Amino acid sequence: MSHDAMTPGPRDSSSTSHDGGRKRRGAPRKRRRGLKITLGIVLVLLLAAGGTVYWLYSKLDGNIKGVDINKALGDDRPEKLPTSGQNLLVLGSDSRAGAENKALGGGGSVSGARSDTAMVVHIPEGRTEAVAVSIPRDTLVTRPECTKADGSTVPSEKRAMFNGVYSLAGPACVVKTVEKMSGVRIDHYLEINFAGFKDLVDAIGGVTVDVPQDIHDKSSGLDLTAGQHKLDGTQSLAYVRTRHGIGDGSDLGRIGLQQQFLLALLSEVKSQDLLSSPTNSYRIANSATKSLTTDSGLASLKSLAEFGRSMNGVDPSTMETIMLPVAYDKQDPNRVVAAEPQAGDLWKAIRKDDTIPESAKKSPATGG
To answer: Would you state the pLDDT for residue 111?
Structure first.
């Protein structure tokens, strides 16, 4: 889902809560098999890393690409609070690099890459629950001054499109932009591109979703009736990227589909017990790592596995998915801006590792 790849309907995309994961008193839960982190793609990647047979370690380890976010951003960052938990920025990139990405992206007319999907995943201190905040790609933000990989400087810009930050200044600038708009310190960065997302879904044999309404998207060719469907990799990519086939044609309508799909992906991984089969683990790990970019702190199979093991207490059923509260921009109704005070209250709760108030989950713009 590495930004033009999951709450059940487009009108409900602002907030979906799953509260079946409360700790029970009495007999302790059995230790869960595998590495569990409550975010679809991140979970799959960490599961794959933790289940890999070590005689293929070098090949898989060499697949992962790393970006030194800390070096690029320096000290001009939000303070890391002792009780702030862990925060990950997960991007789905629409890079056209390579023949497969170009084909999946709909041709070669678009150059560079953008952040087609962006989620800030917050794992609270204690790591038993998590929340994923989707940032709409069409959100207008103040992009801070950034230094590109070649050392050149990109000046600050107001009313910049969020999904254009990646193509203009790279992943470190996306992290900096998110930190500036939220005040949340981002601990880790993960990115996966078109081909990687498709291959992941195909590697696990497809994902079953409940389509909330008929979708007929002439742009992507996606044609689904309401109801249950098992989607292969290509269909899944079209499903999480569709914007013309659902809601008002904006980015907001499909955020609900993205969140719904990630939860369905989690369920599929859990039901297959993939870590019991080294062959399946390797196939998924190879598909994932070939298209994975992380911050330098996670840019090895060992680091991913260790991070995943630290998340063993997180249960997917406790995951809450929220769309950043936004309002339609008054100057351009095709764009959105962070809605206040909701967005500010949401980020404040994440910074302080507090419960997110219900009022901070309501978005004036729904994409319905």
So the answer is: 45
